[in-house]
Amino acid sequence: MSQLTILRYPDPRLHTVAKPVAAVDARLKSLVQDMLETMYEAEGIGLAATQVDVHERLVVIDVSEGRDQPLVLINPEILWASDQTQVNDEGCLSVPGIYDGVERSSAVKVQALGLDGKQQTHEAEGLLAVCIQHEMDHLIGKVFVQYLSPLKRNRIKTKMVKQQKGE
Ligand code: K2U
Ligand code: ZN
């Protein structure tokens, strides 16, 4: 297993639209393990393949207290999202140190392949629902700061660029 480099906003590669995973094979299973190691090390509760510059429809999530219940979603599709919404403070491993409110559906039903290659369906609410929606945004090239005002987004972009220049 190895730790992967997480792309930092405003890296344009974060805006790549991911393609479907073609096969749940040894390559993919190795990538999943590397993504989980990277997520746990970064103290995240989710990570999308887009964030590690792999542009395939794959996310890993673990919202458990014990950080020992990983959820792997391959080719995830949202089947249903509640009309009821909630504003939650969100962060992102690709936008370190930035947190702001984002409105999302309070509950979702998602279908995906598991690591066994079999179709599975998950009904989620609360933090898991937020995380699933956040990660699936990554797969279509969307970063949570795009829900914020242009003023806020430009300030965040300037801050991230300075951070990466070591200023
Ligand atoms: O995609 C990512 O960068 C992972 C996010 C997922 C996430 C964002 C917003 C709300 C829930 C999950 C990171 O885990 S951001 C760090 C974090 C950790 C715990 C709770 C919220 C955010
Ligand atoms: Zn993120």
Coarse shape: globular
- Listing every helix as H and every strand as E from the N terminus to the C terminus, the arrangement reads HEEEEEEEHH
The counted number of beta strands is 7
Straight-line distance between termini: 33 Å
Helicity, as a percent range: 25-40%
Bound ligands: ligand K2U, zinc ion
Strand portion: 25-35%
Q: How would a textbook summarize the main sheet?
A: 5 strands, antiparallel
**Class per helix and strand makeup:** alpha+beta
Mean pLDDT: 97
Please report the number of helical segments: 3
Strand order of the largest sheet: 1-2-3-6-7
Using only C-alpha atoms, the radius of gyration works out to 15 Å
Low-confidence stretches: none
Account of the 3D structure:
It is globular, with a radius of gyration of 15 Å. It is built from 3 helices and 7 strands; from the N terminus they run αβββββββαα. Helices cover 27% and strands 26% of the residues. The strands form 2 sheets. It has a 5-stranded antiparallel sheet. The longest helix is centred in the first third of the chain and has 16 residues, at 26-41. Strand 6 (107-113) and strand 7 form a beta hairpin. The chain has 167 residues and is α+β, with helices and mostly antiparallel strands. The chain has helices at 26-41, 126-139, 150-164; strands at residues 46-48, 58-61, 71-81, 85-90, 100-105, 107-113, 119-125. The model has no long low-confidence stretch (mean pLDDT 97). The termini are far apart. The protein binds ligand K2U and zinc ion.
